[in-house]
Design brief:
Shape: globular
Strand content: 15-25%
Low-confidence stretches: none
Oligomer: single chain
Radius of gyration: 31 Å
Number of helices: 18
C-alpha cells in the first residue's frame, strides 16, 4: 500500500464499501458525538468523513490533533446510515472507519479559521496567504484561473498560433506607466527594465517570419492598485499575427473570448461573435466612457441645442460658452419620491459637480426646477430626443470636453444602478475602435500619444504630414466586457519613416527614436510585414468569470494595495554591500519634520 494514500479525499463511493483505503490531507473540522469522533479530512480534491469509534486505539491521537494538521488515515470504507448521508458531498454516502492515524505535520494555533465563510481583513489573509488558499472559495478561484489559461492556450493553438517566450530583462519603453528597473551589475550605471508588455519583441517575431505568436505573458508596471488592476505585475494573453487586417484580429480573438466565457461562465449569457464595434467618439458621446457597460440600456443624448438661448440661464450660458448639455434618461423614475432626486443631487456634489438637474415628464408636460424655467417646446424637444414618456425622468450633465463626457457616464451608471436596470447574469462584449492617435496633455500642453505609440495611423504618413494631429485616428482598439477593459490592441506601424514621423509629432526627435528603438527600427528596414495583435488580461477575465469585485481574489500570491508582499516581506531593504556591488548609493527622501508644540505657561 502506498505510504500516504490510495485515493484522494474525493474518490471514494458507495461501491468502495468494505475496501481498505488510505487517505492523507488536512484536518478540516472535528466533531465529538458522544464518544464517536468525526473528522472531515480535506485534500486538493475534496473531503471525506473519518469516524473514530469510542475505545479506538487511535482515539487519543485524533482527539489531540488540531485542525489544519496534516494526517494520514487508514481504515475500512463503510456505508453511512440513510439519515447520516450527505448529498452535498460526492463522498457523502460513505465514511472511513480509522484503524491507523498518523500525524504527518501538526498545525499551530491558526491566525484565522480555514473552514467556514467568515470574512477576515485582507492584510491578515495576504500575510498568511498559504492558509487563505486552503479556503474553498479562494481555491476555486485559483483552479478556475488555471483552467481558463489552459483553455486559452488550447484555443490559440487550434487557430495556428505558436507559443514563444519573450525576455523579462529588457530596455525601457514608453508604454504609459512607470517601469520597474533592475540595476545591471556588470554595467555600472545602467539598468534593465522589466517589460510593461512584450510589445517590441512580438513585433520583432513578426519581422522574423514567425507569423502567429502568442504567450501567457507576465507584464510589470509600477503603478497604483485599483479594484481591476494589480500593482506590480499581471498576466495577459499576448498575441500577434502577420499580414492581418484589423477585422482579422477581431475574428481571431472573438471566438476565443466567446468560447472561454461560455465554457466557464456558469450558464450566463455571452455576446455572440461578431461583437459590436463602437467608434471611440460615439462611445464617449453615447455612453460617457471608452469602456461602456452594455448591460446598461441607458444612452446619453446631446441636448445642447434645446438649451441654447433658452430661459434656463445656467445651461444657456454653458451652451453659449462652447459647452455641452447631456441628457441621461431615467425611465420609470417619474413616480419616485423627492428623496430619490435629492439623493442623486447629493451624490453629484460628492463627485465634484454643482448638482444634478432633472425634469420629470408627466402627461401635461415637464415638471421640476429646470422645466419651470424652460420653454414648453424645448422640454418637449428633450423628451422626444431621449425617447421618454410620461412617468419617466431625465437628468442633465453640463460642461466641456472630457469632463462632461466622463461625468455623464458616471451618472448613467448610477441611475441604471438605482433603477435596477443593469442586465444580470450576462457578459456583454464590444470593441472600441478608431481611437485618436494623439491627445493634448493638459499639464504640459504638449501632444502625447493617446494609446499605443507603435500603432499605425489611419492615413499613414500622408495623414501625419497633412492633418491636425489631434484629428488623426489610429488603427487602435480595445475589447471591453461589462465595463471592464480586457485588452488594448492595434495594427502596428511597420514602416520606419512613418514611425519616426509619428514619434516626432509627440516630441521625440529622430535621434532619440533611433537611440531608444533602434533595434526595432533597424529590423523594419530589412522587410517587415503588416501585422497586428492584442493582449486581453488574464486576471481581469478570471475576475469577471469568478464574479469577484477585486482582482486580488483571483491571483495566487497578490501584493496588497500598497504594492507590498506581506507574506514574504517585499519590498525590503538591501544591505550596503549589495548596493556597492551594484554601484548604487541611496538618496532617500528626508522624513517630514514633526510639528513641535510650544510649552504653555499655566498660572
Amino acid at each position: 500500500m502506498h505510504p500516504y494514500r490510495t485515493h484522494s479525499c474525493a474518490a471514494l463511493r458507495a461501491e468502495d464499501a468494505g475496501a481498505t483505503a488510505r487517505l492523507s490531507g488536512w484536518v478540516h473540522s472535528k466533531r465529538d458525538h458522544g464518544g464517536l469522533l468525526f473528522i472531515d479530512l480535506r485534500d486538493h480534491a475534496g473531503i471525506t468523513q473519518i469516524v473514530i469509534p469510542a475505545g479506538s486505539v487511535v482515539m487519543d491521537a485524533a482527539e489531540a490533533v488540531r485542525v489544519e494538521s496534516v494526517v494520514t488515515v487508514t481504515g475500512e470504507v463503510v456505508l453511512r446510515d440513510g439519515a447520516t448521508r450527505n448529498p452535498n458531498l460526492p463522498t457523502g454516502d460513505i465514511e472511513v472507519r480509522a484503524k491507523e492515524f498518523v500525524v504527518q505535520s501538526a498545525a499551530a494555533v491558526l491566525p484565522f479559521q480555514v473552514a467556514g465563510q467568515e470574512h477576515y481583513p485582507e492584510d491578515l489573509r495576504l500575510k498568511y496567504r498559504y492558509l487563505d488558499l486552503r479556503r474553498d472559495k479562494v481555491r476555486r478561484n485559483m483552479m478556475l484561473r488555471a483552467q481558463v489559461i489552459a483553455s486559452l492556450r488550447r484555443r490559440m493553438v487550434e487557430q495556428g498560433f505558436t507559443e514563444f517566450q519573450t525576455p523579462i530583462l529588457t530596455a525601457s519603453s514608453p508604454e504609459g506607466a512607470r517601469d520597474f528597473l533592475v540595476p545591471a551589475r556588470m554595467h555600472p550605471g545602467k539598468f534593465y527594465a522589466l517589460p510593461q508588455a512584450p510589445q517590441q519583441f512580438k513585433q520583432l517575431a513578426m519581422v522574423a517570419g514567425l507569423d502567429r505568436y502568442f504567450q501567457i505573458a507576465p507584464c510589470f508596471r509600477d503603478e497604483a492598485a485599483r479594484a481591476d488592476r494589480s500593482p506590480g505585475e499581471f498576466y495577459q494573453l499576448d498575441f500577434e499575427m502577420a499580414f492581418a487586417t484589423q477585422e482579422e484580429v477581431f475574428a481571431t480573438l472573438e471566438p476565443v473570448m466567446e468560447g472561454v466565457f461560455r465554457e466557464f461562465g456558469g450558464g450566463r449569457e455571452v455576446s455572440a461573435a461578431p461583437f459590436v464595434r463602437i467608434p471611440y467618439a460615439e462611445a464617449m458621446a453615447v455612453y460617457g466612457s471608452d469602456k461602456p457597460d452594455l448591460r446598461n440600456p441607458l444612452k446619453i443624448s446631446d441636448v445642447t441645442e434645446a438649451f441654447a438661448g433658452s430661459g434656463f440661464g445656467l445651461f444657456s450660458r454653458i451652451a453659449a460658452d462652447g459647452g455641452e448639455i447631456r441628457a441621461i434618461p431615467a425611465p420609470g423614475a417619474g413616480d419616485r419620491p423627492r428623496g430619490f432626486f435629492d439623493k442623486l443631487n447629493n451624490w453629484a456634489r460628492e463627485n465634484g459637480a454643482g448638482g444634478l438637474g432633472y425634469i420629470v415628464f408627466e402627461a401635461d408636460g415637464g415638471k421640476g426646477p429646470i422645466a419651470k424655467n424652460l420653454e414648453a417646446e424645448r422640454v418637449e424637444a428633450i423628451r422626444e430626443k431621449t425617447g421618454l414618456k410620461a412617468g419617466d425622468a431625465v437628468f442633465f450633465a453640463a460642461g466641456k470636453g472630457d469632463d462632461v463626457a466622463k461625468f455623464s457616464g458616471l451618472v448613467r451608471t448610477r441611475i441604471a444602478t438605482e433603477l435596477d436596470l443593469i442586465e444580470k447574469d450576462a457578459f456583454r462584449f464590444c470593441w472600441i475602435v478608431d481611437f485618436p492617435m494623439y491627445e493634448l496633455n493638459e499639464e504640459t500642453k504638449q501632444i502625447d500619444f493617446s494609446h499605443n505609440p507603435f500603432s499605425m495611423p489611419q492615413g499613414g504618413l500622408d495623414a501625419l504630414n497633412t492633418q491636425d494631429p489631434l484629428k488623426i485616428k489610429a488603427y487602435q482598439y480595445d475589447i471591453v466586457c461589462n465595463g471592464i477593459e480586457l485588452s488594448s490592441g492595434a495594427i502596428r506601424n511597420h514602416l520606419p519613416e512613418v514611425m519616426i514621423r509619428a514619434f516626432e509629432i509627440a516630441g521625440y526627435p529622430e535621434s532619440e527614436v533611433e537611440a531608444r528603438f533602434g533595434g526595432m527600427l533597424n529590423a523594419f528596414r530589412y522587410g517587415a510585414p503588416p501585422h497586428g495583435g492584442s493582449a486581453p488580461g488574464v486576471d481581469r477575465m478570471v475576475m469577471l468569470l469568478a464574479d469577484e469585485p477585486n482582482i486580488r481574489e483571483v491571483i495566487l500570491f497578490p501584493l496588497n494595495q500598497q504594492g507590498e508582499d506581506l507574506m514574504m516581506g517585499a519590498p525590503a531593504p538591501v544591505e550596503p554591500a549589495r548596493l556597492k556591488e551594484l554601484s548604487l548609493a541611496l538618496d532617500l527622501p528626508k522624513p517630514k519634520p514633526t510639528a513641535k508644540t510650544e510649552p504653555t505657561n499655566v498660572g
